[in-house]
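Lecture 7 notes. Example A: sequence first, then its structure tokens.
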Amino acid sequence: MDYAISVLVGLAGAAVVILTAMSAAMTFVVPRGTPLLITRLVFVTVRAGFRLRLRGVHDYRRRDRTMAVFAPTTLLALPLVWVILVLVGFTAIYHVIGERTWRGAFLESGSSMFMLGFRFPPNLPAGLVEMTEAGFGLSLIALLIAYLPTIYTTYSRRELLVTALETEAGTPPWAVTLLVRLARIEGMPLLDTYWRDWTHWFNDIEETHSTTPMLVFFRSPAPERSWVNAAGTILDSAALVSSTLESHRHHQARAELCLRAGYLALRRIGDYFVMPYDPDPRPDDPISVRREEFDAACARLVDAGAKLRDDRDQAWRDFVGWRVTYEPLLLRFASLCIAPYAPWSGDRPIEFHRLPVSRRRARSMLHGPRRHHEWSEPDSATRTDAPPPLP
């Protein structure tokens, strides 16, 4: 009986080591955001701690300062958890192959993992296991060293256009501010290059943020900036140009391609977080932007000298038809990332913060009822009282 229990303990230890190695490899090496139990569990646990810390905090800047360290903390917690699991797994293996006490097995495992060398293997099988564990330790350290520069290079590339948007769309950014400023300086032809740059940006974040989902939670250096609000500003700008402004079909085509790149990027990233959305929304589905807000935006564009389509009702229907493709995900990301105030995006988030731990739970959430039009009003705990910016 004792022998059978020892074998089961050894097999359990080996399983822990194998699962941990797979988690590290899938997170660091495989170019795909694969939801693994260990990674998700660490992520959800750390996030729960940060949400507990934010309870009762109603000042947005304090919340922003707190959440600014969430992503780096989780990133550093992952290797620590992997090291602990490998240490525990090999402790069970050493206990089976020769070490009579758990204390001795633990010291043997620690000596091998951290290559301290204060324990000598009692036999050949133990020596082989020690070399294997030492290889695991070196591999985890090497992966982390190689991974961090990649993370921050990608982050810097994303923030370059987010920072530049402040010059063009104000703080907080807004699509109407962007288009009014361009109309006043007769800069509408510049939008062609604009759509190309932001189409490339959406393609880039689709690849990087779905491969490395932790990038979603890396906040901008300035508390009033966010990649979520930047995405919303560009998508709303492209939707207004495609639906409301009078322009050549060539310019509209560029805007529509940018729109498609944008909502596809949000969908691919949202798939990792199991965000519900309708893959084939109807053009007449309700949106959070009211008709009165749309008409007020049109009035500001006319005052700035922009030429709008004569049929305002059709323009509104076309705008709604575009916005339903990206709004459900955009507003959920605004909630998930605690985005700052921004008109038409960060000021009306759809609550989304409970993330699934297991794949089974993820599938049930994904295929459950989709209520993607339930937006919420801004609250004092997450927003500032700043009004929409004037151009």
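Example B, a different protein, same format:
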Amino acid sequence: MAADDPFHHLHDEDYARPYVAGFVGAGSYVPVNGRPVVSLDGDWLLTLDLFDEGLRQKWFALDETPPSQWSHPRDYEIEAGEPTPVPSCWNLLKPEWTHFEGAGWYTRHVDWQRGPAGERVILSVGAANYAAMAFVNGRYVGGHRGGSTPFSLDVTELLQDGRNRLQIMVENRRCPTRVPMQHIDWFNYGGLYREISLLRLPATFIREARAALLPGGQEVRFSIQLSEAQDTTAQVSVPELGVALSVPVCGGLGEATVPFAGQRWSPDAPRLYDIQFACGADQVNERIGFRTIETRGTDILVNGETIRLKGVCVHEDDLALGKVSTEEDVRRRFRHVKELGGNFLRLSHYPHHEHVARVADEMGLLLWAEIPVYWAIAFDHPDTYADAENQLRELIMRDVNRASVILWGIGNENADTDARLSFMSRLAQAARRADSSRLVGAACLINRETFTIEDRLAEYLDVIGLNEYFGWYEPNFSGLDRLLANSSPTKPVIVSETGADALPGHRGAGRVLFTEDWQAEFYRQQITRLAAKPYVAGIAAWLLYDFRTERRQTGFQKGFNRKGLIAEDKTTRKLAFAVLAELFAEWGTPGLS
């Protein structure tokens, strides 16, 4: 059938290939980092597209003439789209869209005036679940895959003076080769659910700027990478430390090390410093804390001092907003962690919003940040590995200056197979290449043959994560006693998940499932045992809030994981909240190790 046949698109199953070839990755990422932006948040027009007709029929190339002037019928009209706020998750906008998985076309018009000659304009997207493709004035810009990491697209040549049409196609289908794959245990929200903006930058700009306290805590290293391989000079200023450096830049890379005479960042004293990086006409402003993180035997040390990580896991989920995460909500969850006596959160099971780590820096909380290499990823598929490593690199590039982030998580509950070992050991190596200043960990399963904390991946990790639910999925705690007695790890262990479901208000004595009473007793039994083992360096209770997941469909769950210490309203506390707070307060005192 000829390509100019009006029905050609009905028979073309290779319609997406030309666009996928234009996907970008971490190498194209441009952080906002305090730069002024032109916000594109607000109302867009959204048309759902279950059958990918938008790509097949090239909706982006259609003009905007009204239907009364069409010479041929069409299946798409921009103005017929649903006015939709961005950021948002389409699942919560209409009841009939709740479980929609497919594509959606977002359109808005932007009035623009070109800047000086040489100006670069970057489209910055905080996140779109899962794949996205962008078009400006009918021309393809590029795309991205990975549902929780940011991406940047250069739109300099496509924007024109006056009115411009911007379209972003987003699709959230679950797929065996994606990261995560189709079998997950949280809700599959879709849409443009984080902020979108345009950055106006000079022809050569700062692509990456880092500052980190070196091991030993006596020196700070500042590093800069430019967008072009130029030889020039950059400036770094930290007024409160009396630092004013001229940094030679060779081939686009610059680095300088100076003595550190300031106060270290810690959970008890989260000291931050204003830092300005400048090169030519570009400037990046940061607030950065300086601390060291390391392991020694089975201990985790912050600034050379052993610390016990007491905290919870948390999903990015809200009754009204879905996966949209506001700063107000972040501060609420952190207040709850502080009231629990916690100093630590595991951000499950994907990169959370950028301001999570920034607020944690301010409030003095430690974070495990991870990518969704979750359960049965296609470990033998090269595209799956490329997707996972790119998400890891994008997460690291975004959050590398956050003192609160102490650990990069590279996986969760993956069976110990040869393919998985190859896949995840390469991820661990990639994490260290991208950032050697933090720990690398993964949430592992136990060795069921020897009943020990043992995983071949541990050789490549700094911290061994342990997910275990003795007393919940297994009726009693004898298995936990056996596991702890049999194990003698040489690296720190963080119990990265443990918990029990409880429906708020459901009560009952003894081991009655889904009661608040058993959830509370579960933690008494768990923490008493775990805290007595010196190699347990941290505990992350599963979890802070109840959250949506369609896997859970008993009369108690009704589409929610009920293991939260607080109900999904983020207000109603269960009995276990107060019990765990007491146990955390006692951990480290005589009698509880």
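Note on Example B: The CA atoms of residues 233 and 405 lie 30 Å apart. Confidence is low (pLDDT under 50) at residues 589-593.
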